[in-house]
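Quarterly update from the structural biology core.
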Amino acid sequence: MLDLTIWMNYPAFFQGDLFRTLIASGEVDLKVIFAKRLTSDRIDLGWQNDLAGYPYHFLDERNKIADAVSLAWAGRDRLHIMNGLWAESPFAAGLVTLAAARSVYAIYSEASEPELPRSTAKKLLRAAFGKALTPKAAGILTVSHLAEDFYKGLGARPRAIYPFGYFRSHARIAADPPPASRGDKIEVIFVGQIIHRKGIDLLIEAINPLFDPHAELLLTIIGSGEMKPALVERVESLGLSERIKFEDAIAPGAIPERVAQADLLVLPSRWDGWGVVVNEAFAVGVPVIASDRCGAADLIENGVNGYVFRSEDVTDLRACLDGFIKNRPSWPRLKAAAAITGQRISTEQTAPYLINCLKHMVGALSERPTPPWEELNLVEDVAG
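Predicted structure, tokenized:
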């Protein structure tokens, strides 16, 4: 039995899936510590606090740092997974406490967003903190190759790196295959925050020239965010209101069913630590186009279950879109490969992998585990 404490910034619906699956395994005594409740931007996207089925604790609002230090010290004999290095200052204090107590801890993290403005002093301080704590970690659960490169830069030992990501339970997503396309209609869909980082403006620019040669093509943009009014105005000015539709944000539980109605999901982000909507698309057999600055692009095999384009390269994105649209006979194969990927990246598959990673970190398992999504041979599996 692994005595495990996981520190998370706030309750996320997909992390709840992971926690419940870990407990159901019977191999983990789990405690979860949250820094805060859901933020307003997530609530605007339809998120709700998902706290059922696992033990949790919110840090004391009166003094979060003192509470984090106390919890870390009291649990110093447990194995800890810390969400990030410095995003939450109480977690940083807890991490220092664990390191001082020579506790066994792992870091579970995306790469730091490179374009966020930071002072030189803050950059130097974070780098020093990261280089002091990262090499002492028993393992780094890297959310994509972007995080792997980032943590290697902070001194992570290659043998301490275990690829991971964000995942959803397949049992919570409708298992029915997506419906066949309605007539000749081709629907491309985006779901997420409508903010600059997500690159929806790039998607509109890329798809615009494709509307004339493809009368059946539609783009649906689902979500909310600060850029939505400007993008709606832009679409109207281009005379594309009948071809590009905007829908309000929907609850996470409804996203897979809505995505299943589309032919293709696009995540055109300038930067995305992961992008859970990619998981959701694959779970319902919908191929994906994502930028190479999305962590979840690690799940895409070009031309097999989707396509990866160079971030901010409108021409490359347009080529991926045009290639998909023109190659309609390949859609059944793409959809079948997407569905297989969706099964292999469910928490039902990734939670056992995580448990084996933890066992390997502490020396209870000799053979290094392989991520389930890296075991795929999609071309052979689809052909079979």
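The longest strand covers residues 2-8.
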